[in-house]
Design brief:
Strand order of the largest sheet: 1-2-3-12-13-14-15-16
Distance between the termini: 20 Å
CATH architecture of the largest domain: Alpha-Beta Barrel
Largest sheet: 8 strands, parallel, barrel
Number of helices: 17
Low-confidence stretches: none
CATH superfamily of the largest domain: Phosphoenolpyruvate-binding domains
Number of strands: 21
Strand content: 15-25%
CATH topology of the largest domain: TIM Barrel
Number of domains: 3
Shape: elongated
CATH class of the largest domain: Alpha Beta
Mean pLDDT: 94
Helix content: 25-40%
Structural class: alpha/beta
Length: 477
Amino acid sequence: MKRSHLTKIVSTLGPASNTAEKIKALALAGVNVFRLNFSHGSHEDHRRNVGFIRAAEKEIGRPLAVLADMQGPKLRIGIFKDGAVELHTGNKFRLDMSAEAGNETRVCLPHPEIFQAMEQGMDLLLNDGLVRLRVDGFGKDYADTTVIIGGRLSNKKGVNVPGVPLPIDALTEKDKVDLQAALDMGVDFIGLSFVQRPEDLLLARSLINGRAAVISKIEKPAALEHLDEIIRLSDGVMVARGDLGVEVPPEKVPVLQKKIIRACRKGGKPVIVATQMLESMVTNPTPTRAEASDVATAVFDAADAVMLSAETAAGAYPVEAVTLMNKIIMETESHDLYRAYLDAARLPPEQTPESAITVAARVTAETLPGAVAIVSYTISGSTAGRVSRERPYMPIVCMTPDIAVARKMSLFWGIRSVICDKLKLLTDVASQASIHCRELYDAKAGDKIIVTAGLPFNVSGSTNLLHIASVTEDQPL
């Protein structure tokens, strides 16, 4: 039987990969979702890339999704007179609102919201946590600090305020302009950066108005205090380990990663593990063994997707990075230990008819000899998403007449989407499911297919049908 990776791959586009040829090559190497980072590039750059992605989708005959990642309220210091300074441990250093170029004793911090949240004795992290300052005293537009961990500090480096919710919205004015442009391009997902509270999702959803799904990036400790509610209001979640790893001690990140993945699975929402997964492949043709283990750990944890950032956006080996990530995923998923991990972490079913049907579909597929796939006929994608939550032993085929739904399903664990006509009869669903399973997985006549759907057909709603069908003799679509 043909196999493909169940854990999906998200790839960031950038100067190393933003051509039609490279995007097609990345898709053929295993990419399911392409990420456009709106922190960089122009709207025209992103619009061109969306066109390349849609063209590649047609050429390879597989739905590809587009994730537009908003920059969010990135907090940065100002500039230095000489471009950079060296801060020494124990020295005093002032942050203030003056636009004057900085030096070894002070620099501009143009963010009044940080001063509003200031507390004596709190720490400020600069340059991804490489420089640490402790607040000795402050006013409404300044803070006097002591350098706790020194180092080089250059223009416009980022600032993190660990453990302190800041009075800022997750969408800046720039983000609102970028958001509208991304929606006009027809992207499938909007990545919302620096989510801190459920209210951030309400604002974003009101602006998006159903035109794309919302992915909440968990990179602020404040978000962990509202994790279940944020997941409920999101269409998916990203474990953004870069900024999260700056604001919490590094030894806590692995446990938080597992906690977030588990919470997303419980809520039935797809979850992406991101940041530095194969970081050494930015400059090297092979990853470190530790990086390979990091990818495998996310796969063992049953994450829906793993993501490449600089590796494919700016690295020297973008296609090789995807190829190796695919190999790591396939090797991990083919091992008996993988099934043992999934079984051990299996979630209790929800007490609903929809959950009962999807649990029954998984058990039936795993019990029947010759079962090759679970096929979900769906209008909204919810039926296939419920099956994905169960993490069955065999592939999930999402049959849908809606290309937008098919693309969104590209992010869900184990789902392969195919476009079909709107069907009215169960016999038609079974017949088309048979054809698709023969084409995708080399199913043979007599093999079993487990079909889930909602009756009446073509109405978005509950999953209430389970049907066992047999693969028929060859016939064209």
